[in-house]
Design a protein that fits this description.
The chain folds into two domains: 43 residues, no CATH class; 31 residues. It is mainly alpha-helical and 92 residues long. This is Helix-turn-helix transcriptional regulator. InterPro entries: Cro/C1-type_HTH, Lambda_DNA-bd_dom_sf. Pfam families: HTH_3 (PF01381).
Length: 92
């Protein structure tokens, strides 16, 4: 990937340096968008190139669960999500 000019992505040189050295693992979606735009690439390609553990994979069952949850109205999704979280927290 080509080098990025910090001013082109509206970020500081210090922050860019931390990103390049994996010293900063949290990047807002707005900042990620600006970096991707400055590099003439997609946000997805930047995330796909991130080292683990920042990059998380989603398995087919999780995708199925997300799709099923998304088929419900927001208030029901929140209730169901709360129940699922409760079940998962009991297992720890």
């Amino acid at each position: 990937m080509e080098p990025i000019a910090p001013q082109k992505a509206d970020i500081s040189i210090n922050f860019l340096s931390k990103l390049e050295r994996n010293k900063s693992t949290r990047v807002s979606s707005d900042t990620l968008y600006l970096i991707a735009k400055a590099l003439n690439t997609s946000m997805e390609s930047l995330v796909d190139n991130m080292p683990a553990p920042e990059k998380q994979s989603t398995g087919p069952k999780q995708i199925e669960l997300n799709n099923l949850l998304n088929s419900y109205p927001l208030n029901e999704r929140e209730m169901l999500s709360s129940h699922i979280i409760g079940i998962l927290e009991k297992r720890h």
